[in-house]
Specification:
Layout (H helix, E strand, L loop, with lengths): L1 H19 L9 H13 L10 H20 L15
Helix pairs in contact: 2-3
Length: 87
């Protein structure tokens, strides 16, 4: 009984990290990579830098993330429909 519990514990310890790092099978197209690069360049990333590229990349990613948050949480109601005023 004690041996089977130990075996199950060891198996769980070995399998859980392996499953945690599983990658998806989605492939990224060349067009998706190009669109992401254009978006990063628009946010200030310079892919031709020789020093500090990681800082520049993280800064551009932060700018893009902030733009996405701002787009989702804009001020005021959704402006779909008609507006009537003056009554």
């Amino acid at each position: 009984m004690n041996l089977s519990i130990r075996t199950a514990f060891v198996a769980a310890v070995v399998l859980v990290p392996a499953l945690a790092f599983a990658q998806s099978n989605e492939t990224v197209t060349r067009a998706q990579v190009r669109a992401e690069l254009v978006q990063l360049e628009a946010a200030g990333f310079n892919p031709d830098c020789s020093y500090g590229c990681d800082v520049s990349l993280r800064r551009a990613q932060a700018v893009i993330a902030q733009q996405q948050v701002n787009a989702k949480t804009g001020y005021g109601p959704n402006m779909v429909g008609t507006v009537q005023s003056g009554k």
